Amino acid sequence: MTTNDELFARGQAVIPGGVNSPVRAFGSVGGTPYFVARGEGAHVVDVEGRRYVDYVQSYGASILGHAHPAVVAAVQAAAAEGSTFGAPTEREVLLAEELVARVPGMEMVRLVSSGTEATMSAIRLARGATGRRTIVKFAGNYHGHADALLVAGGSSVAEQATSDSAGVTSGAVADTVVAPYNEVPPLDEDVAVVIVEPVAANMGLVPPADGFLQGLRDACDAVGALLMFDEVITGFRLGVGGATERFGVAPDLWAFGKVIGGGLPVGAFGGRRDVMERLAPLGPVYQAGTLSGNPLATAAGLTVLRELDADAYERLDGIAGRLADGLTSAIGGAGLDVQVPRVGPLVGLFFGADPVTDFVTAKVSAETGTYRRFFRAMLDRGVALAPGPYEALFPSLAHTDEDVDRTVTAAAEAATEIARA
Ligand SMILES: Cc1ncc(COP(=O)(O)O)c(C=O)c1O
Ligand SMILES: N[C@H](C=O)CCC(=O)O
Question: Which residues are recorded with the post-translational modification N6-(pyridoxal phosphate)lysine (predicted)?
Fold first, then answer.
């Protein structure tokens, strides 16, 4: 038994499935997950000493790559001063100022400890601020695992038989309406908030159709509903001002996570001042957290954001472009039908000839089973993609041309192997 196999066996004895988040168990790609010993920039090294070019990057949390020296130094310095107090600290204010300064239209923000907490709290706020009940979400969008949002979910929820979860009562989702992505749904005066991934990145990568986000803005305005962008993936990745800046559409509420914590547990939700001032202690909508605004997470997040200027985004775009172009020609050249959508630094991978525009078409691609075979063939060649067909690829600022070219060579070999089988 290898160390890896042994760890997985021991993990399965004491942790359900051996993992602390289902996608990590390799359920949809088969085999034993690699246990990471350490990360170095664009690479992870497993407990057997095998090195992979890593496109998981903690599902987008590690935009600078793993163990960036400035982030390590900031976290070490913060830890030496104490890791949590239950009292406000200066860096919480600094991080909130950075977020508000970058996102056009966002006036206030509250820090939490995960993306799930961010969307869950923002939904409560939207209901409290409007006095309405209904929330509208889109099939294949994933907003974390709060009950009201755990229906027709993307990411690894999509691999559950019904894309939702046992234990979520019909009452908990009675006021959740699910609509197809990329179609503006009819809304009425009961709708408190429409929550959307402005670029869907949890059913593979599905860009918003032309006019979709503006259509949502107009439909919300027509009935007095709030619009929320779940930017847990897109925030501070698509550019300095995230999806709001890229698409020129401002929602009323935003949810963030991942990048703003520099690899530590963090989330945030923000919005217009009049809406945010409905939150306790100013208003009647309760929300709280022992570790919210955590000193280590704010140190890491501030350090990451300081590295993310316009030049950094241009470089990241270049890395993602090289990757997307290379994968398209390597896989297509081997005779497999493939689509490699890209929105700035975000890259997707769908097998099959038909365009993917929503959850239905994403499932058609996933169910070909080609992703599973491609994933395994790439892992054998030292390239780690996400272990599920409903995820995106996350090139980081640490990926070099050499890393990308190695990936493309591996992709050509893997696709040829699959095409011949
Ligand atoms: C768009 C989106 N929203 C919310 C979440 C939930 O974030 P977390 O896993 O930090 O709870 C995720 C990722 O998991 C996500 O991708
Ligand atoms: N797609 C998810 C987040 O973006 C994957 C993270 C997880 O579920 O562990």
Answer: 258
Quick one: 397 and 410 in the same domain? yes
For the question of residue 258 being annotated catalytic, the response is: yes
What is the domain range of residue 119? 69-307
Among the bound ligands, name the one nearest to the CA of residue 114.
1
- Whether 55 is a known active-site residue: answer no
Instruction: Please indicate, yes or no, whether residues 37 and 128 belong to a single structural domain of this protein.
Output: no
Same structural domain, 215 and 181 = yes
Residue 314 and residue 392 share a domain: yes
Going by CA atoms, what residue is nearest to atom 9 of ligand 2? 21
Give the distance (Å) from ligand 2 centre to CA of residue 390: 10
ipTM of this complex prediction, to 2 decimal places: 0.99
CA of 393 to the centre of ligand 2 (A): 12
Q: Is 221 a catalytic residue?
A: no
Same-domain status, 288 and 339 = no
pTM of the model: 0.97
| SS3 letters across the chain | CCHHHHHHHHHHHHCHHHCCCHHHHCCCCCCCCCCEEEEEECEEEECCCCEEEECCHHHHCCCCCECCHHHHHHHHHHHHCCCCCCCCCHHHHHHHHHHHHHCCCCCEEEEECCHHHHHHHHHHHHHHHHCCCEEEEECCCCCCCCHHHCCCCCHHHHHCCCCCCCCCCCCCCCCEEEECCCCCCCCCCCEEEEEECCCECCCCCECCCCCHHHHHHHHHHHHCCEEEEECCCCCCCCCCCHHHHHHCCCCCEEEECHHHHCCCCCEEEEECHHHHCCECCCCCECCCCCCCCCHHHHHHHHHHHHHCCHHHHHHHHHHHHHHHHHHHHHHHHCCCCEECCEECCEECCEECCCCCCCHHHHHHHHCCCHHHHHHHHHHHCCEECCCCCCCCECCCCCCCHHHHHHHHHHHHHHHHHHHHC
Question: Which of the following is catalytic: 164, 230, 358, 403?
Answer: 230
| pLDDT score, position 51 | 98
Per-10-residue mean pLDDT of the chain, 421 residues long, equals: 95 97 95 97 98 98 98 98 98 98 97 98 98 97 96 86 83 94 98 98 98 98 98 97 97 98 97 97 97 98 97 98 98 97 98 96 96 98 97 98 98 97 88
